[in-house]
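FORM 12-B: Structure-to-Sequence Request
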């Protein structure tokens, strides 16, 4: 069943709304990384990168483990499933409309095509 009011779903969409956070998730999809390495490709302070990571953590998309002074970030893609299910509901909605439009256009094309039967009034 599709949830329309879900703080978890709201947090996931909020986290995914930012291109920096999406890029971070993409990077983490290949391997876990320390915060410093995850932040390195972006022109921002470590504090700013940490704020992005906190948003990802609140959404459940990133898990951070701390060993000494090292904060290792790891992707947890499972929360994206709820967002995917929400979007699939609307994908079906739009697909039905596209299918109906396609059927209508095909019917119009068939109605406009001249018949191929010979014209009885026309002499060869």
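FORM 12-B RESPONSE
SEQUENCE OUT:
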């Amino acid at each position: 069943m599709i949830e329309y009011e879900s703080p978890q779903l709201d947090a996931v969409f909020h986290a995914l709304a930012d291109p920096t956070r999406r890029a971070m998730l993409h990077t983490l999809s290949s391997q876990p990384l320390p915060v410093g390495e995850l932040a390195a490709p972006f022109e921002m302070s470590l504090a700013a990168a940490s704020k992005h990571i906190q948003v990802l953590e609140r959404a459940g998309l990133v898990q951070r483990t701390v060993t000494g002074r090292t904060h290792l970030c790891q992707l947890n893609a499972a929360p994206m499933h709820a967002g995917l299910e929400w979007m699939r509901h609307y994908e079906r909605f739009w697909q039905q409309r596209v299918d109906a439009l396609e059927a209508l256009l095909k019917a119009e094309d068939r109605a406009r095509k001249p018949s191929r039967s010979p014209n009885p009034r026309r002499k060869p």
